[in-house]
Amino acid sequence: MRRGRFRALVLAAFALLAALAAQRAHAQSVSAIRIDGAINPAIADYVVKSIAAAHASGASALVIELDTPGGLVSSTKDIVTAILNAELPVIVFVSPRGAWAASAGTFITLSGHVAAMAPGTTIGAAHPVTIGGDNPKPPEPESPADGKKAPRHSDFMAEKLENFTAAFIESIAAERKRNVEWAASAVRNSVAIGAPEALRRNVIDLLADDLDDLLVKVDGRSVHLGKHAVTLHTRGVSVVRLPMDLVTRVFAVIADPQIVGLLFLIGLAGIYVEFQNPGLVAPGVIGAVALLLAATALQIIPFNWVGLLLVAGGVALIVAEVHVSSYGALFGLGLGALCWGAWLTFHVPELSDLSLPFWRAILPTALTLALVMLGLAWTVSRAQARPQYAGAEGLLAEIGTADSDLSPQGRVRVRGELWNAVADAPVRRGDKVEILAVENLVLRVRPRAGGREGGGE
Q: Is the pTM for the entire model greater than 0.70?
């Protein structure tokens, strides 16, 4: 009986030691993820899941290495909410050198329990963009008697959006005890600063050369998780990377206006080729898959239906130019509609600062398409200007050899083929003849002066 109790006590002690060792091992690890690109629903889902996974694994903190030009307002809000309510410290590190924390990245950086930047990085420019890319200005007060026009509705909407965004970033900065005035200025005036200036102005907490340097510098720092203070122990810990799963990675890639535009054009081209050449299969399958991916992406990122209809109309006009001779008029109108629609499709400033760059994406694509169509038109025109070499018409003015006497009927050899022929004048076997016409598969010929073939056949 005593041996059984002793054995149970020993096993319990070993189990306790193993649990303590496992807990210590987890506490000596830090989870890390990297965000490199636009903020969209796939990225937001990745961050939210990573926070939960890091906490479940017992990691002492989660490091978000950030480099982003901006993204969707809704996705940014989801990420900020997840960080502010995280059950473990979240460290936002703008890196590597040359990285941005622009627009949406500013909100995410300020929301971290610890905010850090690498040398040579930039933060700010969080102003909501309006139609045309101008900074919205609040309408000036006007009296009805001054004769001025009343403020436009768009001005009020711009001011409303700006005030809401400024209040949002001010609340984040106040929660983390960072520079509230600068945060508001980043929204209202599109202010952007480098890493040293951000540290001096209390926008971030520290500078770090890389992830290892960051973990050394944040060691021993106290942060607040709700009402509780937590001390970070990050020196010498192992870093566990949390990879993005395949599905999320695919959604993160296709949720880019440039990728969506490319998929849409590939899809339309594939379907058109399949209709023009039924049975090829491959173009139709590729086009259908591309359109399906584009439609999926349009469920992720906001878009403008008017722009999408303009794109479809532009493509229809370009296709019509192939079948209707408009001397380039339909093609020009279609190309213009395509460019305008492509830019307008993803220009939804109240929901996102993602867009399809006109000068870097739309214009080069349009010029390439125009050059390709111009090359095709030039090739076709040259082909039409050349004399026909195939069929009955291609035999006109050809020189053949009489294979038998023509008086007036007989046979003529042309291009290695024997044809029945009728001559305008008697022709002897072996004489050269010139073809004048083709009538019901019978050649009408005439003798060619000095066309006797030596030796005959």
A: no
